[in-house]
């Protein structure tokens, strides 16, 4: 079944004009980009029960209360997905999860558009974080 999800997600991504830069059918992982949306090296895992998308945003030179507060407040505005920090607490990532059994083209597109909108509207702000 997981391989069927992988193929379904791959078809959706091709239909949405994403470029697949890496694929591993055995692990059900795709890496995609669509540079005109600012999306590059977006990792998509397609294992039942969830589709997990992670886009590395930037390395934070230092994590302050102000930065965390700002990111958490921005999470409230994001339509799909959220900002998260990795285990090191320094790498800022956009992460979204979708239920595989109910996934359709429009739901995946909405999630990808949410990431693109976030990057376009909030990109300058994020750049300032990386320079602190």
Question: What tags apply to this protein structure?
Answer:
single chain; 132 residues; alpha+beta; Yope Regulator, Chain: A; 3 helices; 6 strands; 41% helix; 33% strand; elongated
Helix-strand layout with pairing:
Elements: H1 2-15, E1 19-24, E2 29-34, E3 39-47, E4 50-59, H2 65-77, E5 82-85, E6 91-99, H3 105-131
Antiparallel strand pairs: 1-2, 2-3, 3-4, 4-6, 5-6
| Elements, N to C (H/E) | HEEEEHEEH
Q: Biggest β-sheet, characterized?
A: 6 strands, antiparallel
Shape type: elongated
| Largest sheet strand order | 1-2-3-4-6-5
Distance between the termini: 46 Å
CATH topology: Yope Regulator, Chain: A
Count of runs of 4 or more consecutive helical residues: 3
- Low-pLDDT parts are none
> How many beta-strand elements?
6
Using the coordinates above, name the CATH class.
Answer: Alpha Beta
* Portion in strands: 25-35%
Cα Rg: 15 Å
CATH architecture: 2-Layer Sandwich
Helix amount: 40-55%
Report the mean per-residue pLDDT as an integer: 93
- Oligomerization status of the protein chains: single chain
- Counted up, domains total 1
How does the helix and strand content classify structurally? alpha+beta
Short description:
With 132 residues, the protein is α+β, with helices and mostly antiparallel strands.
Question: What does this protein structure show overall?
Answer:
The chain is α+β, with helices and mostly antiparallel strands and 132 residues long. The protein has one domain (2-131): 2-Layer Sandwich (Yope Regulator, Chain: A). It is built from 3 helices and 6 strands. The protein has helices at residues 2-15, 65-77, 105-131, and strands spanning 19-24, 29-34, 39-47, 50-59, 82-85, 91-99. Strands 1-2-3-4-6-5 form a 6-stranded antiparallel β-sheet. The model has no long low-confidence stretch (mean pLDDT 93). This is Molecular chaperone Tir. InterPro entries: Tir-like (IPR054345). It comes from Rufibacter glacialis. It holds the Pfam family CesT_Tir_1.
């Amino acid at each position: 079944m997981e391989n069927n999800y992988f193929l379904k997600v791959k078809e959706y991504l091709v239909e949405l004009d994403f470029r697949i830069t890496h694929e591993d059918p055995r692990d059900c992982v795709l890496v995609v980009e669509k540079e005109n949306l600012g999306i590059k090296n977006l990792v998509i895992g397609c294992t039942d029960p969830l589709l997990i998308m992670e886009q590395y945003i930037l390395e934070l030179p230092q994590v302050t209360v102000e930065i965390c507060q700002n990111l958490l407040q921005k999470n409230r505005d994001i339509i799909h997905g959220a900002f998260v920090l990795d285990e090191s607490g320094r790498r800022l990532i956009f992460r979204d999860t979708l239920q595989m059994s109910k996934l359709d083209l429009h739901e995946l597109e909405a999630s990808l558009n949410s990431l693109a909108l976030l990057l376009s509207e909030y990109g300058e702000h994020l750049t300032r974080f990386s320079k602190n």
